[in-house]
Amino acid sequence: MDYNSHTDIVVRVAVSLVNELTPGERRGRPFPVPVDAGAAATAGLRAVYTSYREVTASEGTELARVAARLRTVFAAVAAGDVDSAAGEVNALLEETHARPMLERHDGEPWHLHFHGRGGTMAGDWAASCATGLAIVLGSEFHDRLGVCTAPHCDRVYVDVSRNGTRRFCSTACQGRVKTAAFRARTRPE
């Protein structure tokens, strides 16, 4: 399931930023607020863009605020409340003044980017991620955004599988759930 190559990448960035910069639980363990938001943001961006530059602490703090807002979009879709998800995306689009621009870089052909009016790194990523999520929410694939259903994990994902049945953020969470179910079935009574 592909939206288009740039939208796929931007939605993956949104997932990565939410998962690296928002507190909660990950794979059965508490996931606290990152001590170094710049390093966490760098890790989130490099999960998609391997050679992305180091993010400063102040940029990381701004991106953490963006990630918290993006998390509400995933949570709303997972709860079946697409209207609230769309409302939050529309608010981000309005606040960032997302504007389309054709760009060509890194040997790629011309493709569409969305930037915020202010030109800050966090503002540009907020505009891009909000636009990518708007494309997803405005399609028949809006239910492909989700929050991990494994116990003690609230990391987000985008389901790119052919049949759209993904329920976990990772194979580690899927394995934890399957192992627990197996143990429950085979436990003597």
Automatic annotation (TrEMBL):
This is RNA-binding Zn ribbon-like protein. It comes from Nonomuraea thailandensis. The lineage of its organism: Bacteria, Bacillati, Actinomycetota, Actinomycetes, Streptosporangiales. Gene3D superfamilies: Jann2411-like domain. It comes from the Bacteria. Residues 144-185 form the Zinc finger CGNR domain. It holds the Pfam family zf-CGNR.
